[in-house]
Specification:
The chain is mostly helical. The protein is built from three helices and no strands.
């Protein structure tokens, strides 16, 4: 049995994915109706951005919550590597 695993960012992630889904449907329709490549590229870019942002939000949320639960409280001098790891993932 899989237990529900949700965080406060999940509604935002869902919103972004639904936006990407709408853009993707639009792109499919645009291809089917022969719209110009520039229009297609712009919409595909919007899909890509929405999915990328959803992924980043999910990863950051996981690191902020799940990693903290696993590591637990640490003295400040031992937290440095973990804090730096969490910070550098923002550039993914």
């Amino acid at each position: 049995m899989i237990m529900a695993h949700t965080h406060t960012t999940h509604p935002d992630i869902l919103k972004r994915l639904k936006r990407a889904e709408g853009h993707l449907r639009s792109v499919i329709e645009m291809v089917e109706t022969g719209r110009p490549c520039l229009d297609l590229a712009q919409q595909l870019h919007a899909v890509e951005k929405a999915i990328g942002q959803a992924k980043r939000t999910l990863i950051q949320d996981h690191l902020d919550h799940c990693l903290e639960e696993t590591v637990g409280p640490l003295p400040k001098d031992q937290r440095r590597s973990i804090d730096e790891f969490k910070e550098i993932t923002k550039y993914l």
